[in-house]
Amino acid sequence: MKLIVGLGNPGSKYEGTRHNTGFMAIDAFAESVNQKIDIQKFKGQYVKFKYKGEDIILLKPMTYMNNSGESVIACMNYFKIDVKDLLVIYDDLDMPTGKLRLREKGSAGGHNGVKSIIHYVGSQEFKRIRIGIDHIPRWDTINFVLGRFLSDEQPLIEEGIKNAVAAIHCYLDDNFSKAMNNYN
Fold it and tell me: 19 an active-site residue?
């Protein structure tokens, strides 16, 4: 069984913002496998389905970004999911818009949602797909991540989301090493 988590903030106020890139990617993946993430549980929304014979859970924590770990650990405990079967998708300020970086483990790198997950699961040893959102230096960081993509960024983030969906499929069809080789 694998748990794939997309990070973001709940509510229409945050829809389409840079910090909701994880939500955008997991929603796009769910659509690609004809699923809807709409079951309310674990302080989030989730769906469980079979993908090529394996149980897959898609989770969107509804705890707001900084408390994402509460939702993740509740889901992991309920389904008895090992940290090695956790994949987290989130935005990254330090990469160009739409660029992907896949890693098998690592620090939070200043991302509060990932910090929360590391705290609750007690490990940094989980897979990640980071999607670049860039950073405009003259913008305040909080206003930047909670802002929407500019029109010239839109095609870049759409391409990044499309590549993230393809990377998730590669991970599930083959393995994470192949996904890293193909999408880093």
Answer: yes
